[in-house]
Amino acid sequence: MTTGLYSVSFKEARGNRRLAFAGDLKSFETKAFEAAQQAGTAIVVDVWASWCPTCAAQEPIIEKLTSSPEFSSVTVFKVAFDKQKDVVQALGPQRRSTLI
């Protein structure tokens, strides 16, 4: 899994259909998110920050989730807390790392 990626569009993330990076609220509402919903896959939205120790502790779990065949029906969208404030505000997480 790549970390530290803040504004990658879904077009750039299409190579890995199970891991997408939301660039802003507009791209978060694109066809990739809708396609995951329509496909009936479980969707995990990981709101994270590079300075957050809880986020760092969760990273191996999310890595396993995106690479394990048992979780092939899970799509993970990562949202950078510091860089994507419009998405964070729309989702509502506060001070802690949040999985939705």
Automatic annotation (TrEMBL):
ATP-binding among keywords: no
Q: Domain (Thioredoxin): give its ranges.
A: 28-91
Q: Cite the GO molecular-function annotations of the record.
A: disulfide oxidoreductase activity
- According to the lineage, what is the superkingdom? Bacteria
What Pfam families has UniProt attached to this entry? Thioredoxin
Is-annotated flag, keyword Metal-binding? Answer: no
Q: What is this protein called?
A: Thioredoxin (Trx)
Q: Which SUPFAM superfamilies match?
A: Thioredoxin-like (SSF52833)
Give the source species: Sinorhizobium meliloti (strain SM11)
Q: Which UniProt keywords apply?
A: Plasmid, Redox-active center
